[in-house]
Each structure stands twice: as C-alpha cells, then as structure tokens.
Write a structure and sequence with these properties.
With 465 residues, the chain is an alpha/beta fold. The protein has 21 helices and eleven strands. Strand 6 and strand 7 form a beta hairpin. It starts with 5 loop residues before the first helix and ends with a helix.
C-alpha cells in the first residue's frame, strides 16, 4: 500500500483532474484509512472496513477519472463496471458476482505482470538459447544401440570422436559462440527464422457470453486446457520478434501461477477498488417499481451482499469482499440517492457532490493537466511535422462555447471539449500530411470561423457538438 499522505494524494490527483476538491479529499482519506487499518492489531484490523463512497454529479465532471487515477496511484486492482449491465438472478444477463470475478482477473493480471518483469533477465537468456537452437541445432545422437557395442569398428570421423568439455563437438560449440556474438551485436535482428511456439488459442471463448454462466465457462476452459496436450505451431518471424515471443514463454514458465493466484486474491481482498458507475439507473424512482425495468430493485438487492461483504468463488479461489473499497457514482438527474433501497444507502456512508464545470474550469482543463487536451493535439500533429499554437483568446472562446453548448443541449461536462476540438481541427488534421514544416496559429478568429455558426444554431449544435 502506498504510504502517501492525503495531501500528497490530492496533489497527485490535481495533476490530471481540475477542481472537485471535496471528492479528492474523500477518496484520499479513504485510501489513507486503508493504510492505517493495515497497521492495526489482527483482531481490530478485521473489524475496520472501508467506508464506501457515493459520488453525485453529472457526466463529464471527473467521477470516473478520480477513481481510475486513484487506483493507478497505489497500483491497486481496479475495475469499472456499470450497474445497468447487470440483472437480478433469474433474468438473462450478467449476475453481480461477475464484478468480483473480474476484480480477481485484474489482480491476477497485475501480479503476473510484476512477477514476469522480475524474471525478465533470466527469460531473456533462455530466449537467446532457443534462438541459437534454431541457427545451430544440437547434433543428433545415434539411436542405434549396436553403435555403442561396436564403436571401435564403426567408421567415424575425427570430428565426431572429438568432444568438448560438455560432451558436444567443438564445431557445434564454435558455431553457437559465433552466432551468439552476432546475435548480441544486433546483426541478426531482421533475419527471418521459423520457430515453434505454443498455441494459446481458447476455443471456448464466447460460448457463455451474456448468459450469466461466465464462471462455468472459465472453469470448463481451464479443465479442458489441463487435460488436452499443448498444441504447437510454426511461425516465420524476425529474430527480434522471436526474442519477444520466446522471452514471454520462458517468463511464464519461470512464474509460479499458484503463488500468483494466492497473492492476487490477497491483493484484491485488501486493496481492490470497484467503481460502480450509473448506480442511479437502477434506483427505483419515487418508490415505483412498475414498468419495463422491473429488475432494477433486484439488481440493488444482489449488489447489496457484495458491498456488505461476502465470499465469492472465483477460478483462483474464494475472494472475500469485506475490505474491497466500492465507489459508486451517478448523475441522479431523475432519481435521488434516497431512491436506492435503504440497506444499500447505508453501505455508502460518504457522499460527495461534484460541482458542474464552469468556464474557468474548462480553460484549466484545456491547458493545465499533464494530459491536457491541447497538449495531446499538439503532440499528435507534431508527428506530421506541423506545429500548432493556441492563443489565449482562442482558449477563452473554446471554454465559453463549451459552457454555452452544454447549457443549450445536454450537459456532458468536459467531454464537450473533445467534440469542439475535433470539429475545430478537422481540416487541419486532414491536410496535416501535406503541411510538414508549417506553423499554424489558432486564435479567436480561427475558432469563430469554424465553430460560431454551429454553436449559435441550436439544431446544428445538438447533432454535431
């Protein structure tokens, strides 16, 4: 667990997310409480459970980004799911236990990648030996048992009778040493070779998709995979590609998957974060459960035991959700948090409301974050040799247009900036390959010429922006 203080966590989040200080403080405190709970005595440690968070705010204000950046910050297993994708037991669709199975898969993938990175050096050495086996195959030994009995009478050459210290002919060892030098110097990187690799195809994938039987499908695939012999196939690739393929295979062989599964389950149980989006879409508005979405309250009842703390069987073993941090989010335009069933409301004691974005927020989003939109577009067009410069008045006009269009149509928050910039730079992006070496300055007049008519015409802006 990362030992950053709440202030440091908020500072890291500020690098990517503008505003929303209350939400940042809430997640920072929740994360620090996890760090504190790990330093308690055994009995008390189990009693302290995470305080789940309910984020309330319209789309595009930063709910998902806060949760995603938080998980990256502490390298915790993280999944984002939408409540609307699940149905209560008895309906066709995914059951809520798939959330926990997906979290386990994410944790296993993270731990496996870390373990494979730790053995990459050894795997690289083994991969090099396999490439050398292709260039200089090992001499075949005679399979005739009589050859040993009549070795003195067999007609053998001097080269076959002479052996090196390890029992191999000197010519074989010299060939490998010569190839090894060329391989390490990079002379053979583009050479085409035929290699034999394991075929990791999974023929059962998709058979159980959407049926609520994903766990059964995974177990069946594992069972068939352990019973059936591994298939191999021939491929013609460059030496550089072969090195990557061989290194990956050798790294997998060096990693103990049982230990990976055990560590991953522990990581998911103690550090896992589940971001449950669109929770307001399964709320029963005004206590009325009639209508086409009769399963919405059932989804809440099925989510409840997962959030409360239960044990779910995954293909890597049982996973307890008692200490998994759940962050739920929703716009709550038509429903209210009080429309959720009382038991579920009580499991999200921390409520934070994310503020709608204003003009100044849009200006900062365009320029300040490390992944700011203007920085992204500058970098993209720089690959074509085109330099673009945004004047302050252009940024100001873009921010104002985003506010105006959000007010006139649906308020989609910062995502409106994506549509505005794509439309603004459409011609430039199309012609960029023919403009290498040029510098384009974008000012308020440039923005007005390309976007003003669309922004003013409500019908056009509704469909285009």
């Amino acid at each position: 667990m990362n030992e950053q203080t709440p202030k440091q966590i908020v500072e890291e989040l500020d690098k990517y997310i503008i505003g929303q200080k209350e939400a940042k403080r809430a997640v920072a405190i929740a994360l620090r409480n996890r760090w504190r709970s790990r330093r308690l005595d055994g009995g008390m440690r189990d009693e302290v459970i995470p305080k789940n968070i309910l984020m309330i705010g319209s789309t595009g204000v930063g709910k998902t980004e806060i949760a995603r950046r938080l998980a990256r910050l502490v390298e915790a297993p993280f999944i984002k799911v939408e409540a609307t994708k699940f149905t209560e037991v008895g309906y066709v669709g995914r059951d809520v236990e798939a959330i926990v199975r997906d979290l386990a898969e994410t944790a296993v993938r993270m731990v496996k990648q870390r373990k494979m990175a730790a053995v990459q050096e050894k795997a690289g050495e083994l991969a090099e030996e396999r490439i050398l086996d292709v260039f200089v195959p090992e001499p075949k030994k005679s399979q005739n048992p009589l050859s040993r009995l009549f070795a003195n009478e067999a007609a053998t050459t001097a080269e076959e009778t002479e052996t090196a210290a390890d029992g191999q002919p000197p010519k074989y060892q010299a060939g490998r040493d010569w190839c090894r030098k060329r391989l390490r110097s990079g002379e053979l990187e583009k050479e085409l070779i035929e290699i034999d690799i394991e075929d990791n195809g999974r023929p059962v994938v998709g058979m159980f998709a959407g049926s609520g039987l994903e766990g059964m499908g995974d177990n069946l695939q594992d069972m068939l995979g352990s019973l059936m012999p591994k298939k191999h196939r021939k491929r013609k690739v460059t030496v550089a590609a072969a090195r990557k393929l061989f290194a990956q295979e050798e790294a997998l062989k060096l990693v103990d998957m049982e230990a990976v599964a055990d560590e991953a389950i522990q990581a998911a149980e103690r550090s896992g974060i589940v971001f449950l989006d669109e929770i307001d879409k399964v709320a029963v508005r005004g206590g009325n459960s009639s209508g086409p979405d009769v399963s919405r309250e059932g989804v809440q009842r099925d989510i409840l035991p997962i959030v409360e703390g239960s044990t779910v069987m995954t293909k890597y073993g049982p996973l307890r959700t008692d200490h998994v941090l759940f962050i739920a989010a929703g716009a709550f335009h038509t429903a209210k948090p009080s429309d959720l069933i009382p038991e579920l409301q009580g499991r999200f004691p921390i409520r934070v409301e994310l503020k709608p974005l204003q003009k100044d927020d849009f200006k900062r989003i365009l320029t300040e974050p490390q992944n700011a939109l203007l920085k992204q577009y500058k970098a993209l067009l720089a690959t074509e040799g085109v330099t673009i410069e945004f004047k302050d008045d252009a940024i100001d006009r873009l921010a104002q247009m985003a506010c105006d269009v959000n007010a006139q149509t649906e308020n989609i928050g910062a995502r409106r900036l994506h549509t505005l910039l794509e439309k603004l730079l459409e011609d430039l992006s199309f012609n960029a390959p023919d403009m290498a070496g040029q510098t384009v300055t974008i000012d308020a007049a440039y923005v007005e010429a390309r976007l003003a008519e669309i922004a003013v015409n409500r019908d056009l802006s509704h469909f285009i922006l």
